[in-house]
Amino acid sequence: MIKYVAEPFKIKMVEPLKITTRPEREEKLKEANYNLFGLDSDDVYIDLLTDSGTGAMSDAQWGGMMTGDESYAGARGYKRLQNTVKDIFNYKYCQPVHQGRAAEQVLLPSLLKKGQKCISNMHFDTTRGHVGLLGARPVDIVVPEAKDTQTYVAFKGNMDIERLEAYINEVRAEEVGLIIMTITNNSAGGQPVSMANIRATKEIADKYGITMIIDAARYAENAYFIKQREEGYADVEIIDIVREMFSYADAFTMSAKKDAIVNMGGLIGIRESEELFTKVKGLTIPYEGFVTYGGLAGRDIEALCIGLYEGLDKNFLRYRIGQVEYIGAKLKEAGIPFQYPVGGHAVFLDAKALLPHIPYFQFPGHALACELYLEAGIRSCDIGSYLLDLDPETAEQQEAEMEFTRLAIPRRVYTQAHFDVVVEALINIKKRASEIKGYEILWQPPVLRHFTAKLRPIE
């Protein structure tokens, strides 16, 4: 029996949604150059493009915004944020920024040099972009189980430890500037990373004198999976699991727009290096603003402090991940392939399996996302070859290891009925999957192309 986990809250404000017809959606998609980022949100019925900044804040967060200190320097919210980071992560230093990619822009230049390698279990798009902008080379070393979308493996987001050490020895340790552990592993399907794997990765990093940081966008969801799936953690509180996870890193970047449930905000944490924090402050001031506000209004910092705790609530996390598991169970019943088991924040449809006739260079993940919008006004996005920029050395199209269409679930926004609409739309699409065509790019920028590229369907 497929059971939906009931919401641990009640709804006290609603936002009307626009219902469009298929002919209207066909015209809207054409006007957007077949790029789903180009659609007006008013023309989207269920928006699963991203879970970043799209969640619903609580009454406590909205109340906190009214007490935010908008002082340019020395605002009391900054001190509260420092205490919050110390309590949750046990990190000595923190720096607010306006979102996750700003955290990467501020932190990574102090850790990576041109020509170096940056290793991750898998880089997400903005991380990969910032590594490339620094003239470094992103290298993904995820476990091979991540590529088997139909087999249950508890921690498909793990770093492949043997390959990690072999690669370091192959290129020499001094050529590796940084190791990034992404939790959960978004590009692998929102898959969690085990505590044992985080610990083992840190041991390798220390052995070769390499700095290790965490991409912490969905750290709370990862902690929940550890509690549910990893031996020895069933009776450990979520916050204590978080503290252990972060004890194995030297620093972290965070898009607080995910697990901290705010509409805008980011964070850099540094465990103990005053030297690194000094460098971060030096780049924050020209890029983001003075260190005590870091590109955020004081009210946003108040909402962030509250949201960091709300995102750790076990009842919220049970409901949150339960929503994704509900969609996955319905899709599995319908025979629609996806990365199994589901991740914490999204269902990653296996577009390669559903649309095997579309080659990677015609972007099956993007084709499925476009078809989902045309079918029911549902916006999603490609996590596959379309997401990858052209190879910086050969200028050729790179082939992703997985071709996914991501259904990212905003926090505290949609209900069971909305998800039933999504499943019904995918069942209808499956019936005519062989008729769906791929896409070609007409124009693209050199970095992070998927946000603004112009495409057209293959005739």
Walk me through the structure.
With 459 residues, this protein is of the alpha/beta class. 38% of the residues lie in helices and 13% in strands. The protein has 15 helices and 14 strands. The strands form 4 sheets. The protein has a 7-stranded mixed beta sheet with strand order 2-8-7-6-5-3-4, sandwiched between helices. Helix 5 (125-133) links the parallel strand 3 (117-120) and strand 4 (137-140). The mean pLDDT is 96.
Write the layout of secondary structure elements.
Blueprint: H1 22-31, E1 46-47, H2 59-65, H3 76-89, E2 93-97, H4 100-107, E3 117-120, H5 125-133, E4 137-140, H6 161-171, E5 176-182, H7 195-207, E6 212-215, H8 219-229, H9 238-247, E7 251-255, E8 266-270, H10 274-287, H11 298-310, H12 314-334, E9 346-350, H13 351-354, H14 364-376, E10 378-379, E11 381-383, E12 404-408, H15 416-431, E13 439-443, E14 454-457
Parallel strand pairs: 1-10, 3-4, 3-5, 5-6, 6-7
Antiparallel strand pairs: 2-8, 7-8, 9-12, 11-12, 13-14
Low-pLDDT parts are none
Arrangement of strands in the largest sheet: 2-8-7-6-5-3-4
Percent helix among the residues?
25-40%
The H-and-E topology, N to C, reads as HEHHEHEHEHEHEHHEEHHHEHHEEEHEE
Report the portion of residues in β strands. 5-15%
Instruction: From the alpha carbons, calculate the radius of gyration and give it in angstroms.
Output: 21 Å
Class from secondary-structure proportions: alpha/beta
Distance between the termini: 43 Å
Largest sheet: 7 strands, mixed
Number of helices: 15
Number of strands: 14
Shape: globular
Mean pLDDT: 96
